[in-house]
Specification:
About 90% of the residues lie in helices and about 0% in strands. It has four helices and no strands. The chain has a domain at about 40-110. Helix 2 packs antiparallel against helix 3 (about 80-110) and helix 2 packs antiparallel against helix 4. The chain is mostly helical and about 140 residues long. The protein is elongated, with a radius of gyration of 23 Å.
């Protein structure tokens, strides 16, 4: 059951990526209003996810130097084991930050491109709305 859900999610993700690729290649004029609204929703959702994960990763990256600071504080106060643990956690947190940043780049490509697609969709829908009002 779990594999079926994973397979379905993977297929839906691939389909959404194909539609976004087509939108980039052909432009929004080749899509129906319904398709554009669905694509816009998917782009907004991907943008929200990218922003949420990116913020969490920035917090992780910003907190890794704090581990060094706390290690120094605990080391000076005589709690050597705690200081050693924090010193060991620092490189792990930093490597984790870099790994997540790389994964975000691979998974979400560029939030700037998503914003551009959303703007193109909005402009096309606005153009169609204006054109429909003339008739």
């Amino acid at each position: 059951m779990h594999r079926d859900i994973d397979k379905l999610l993977h297929q839906l993700n691939e389909q959404a990526e194909d539609e976004v690729r087509l939108l980039r290649e052909l432009g929004p004029a080749c899509f129906t209003d319904e398709d554009l609204l669905q694509l816009r929703g998917r782009c907004l959702e991907r943008q929200r996810l990218a922003t949420r994960y990116s913020k969490a990763n920035i917090i992780l990256g910003a907190s890794s130097p704090l581990l060094l600071l706390f290690a120094i504080i605990f080391g000076l106060s005589g709690q050597v084991q705690t200081a050693a643990a924090l010193l060991k956690a620092f490189p792990l947190a930093f490597v984790l930050f870099l790994g997540i940043a790389w994964l975000l780049k691979v998974e979400f490509d560029s939030t700037g491109q998503l914003e551009l697609l959303i703007d193109q969709i909005d402009a096309e829908l606005e153009r169609r709305s204006t054109q429909a009002m003339k008739f």
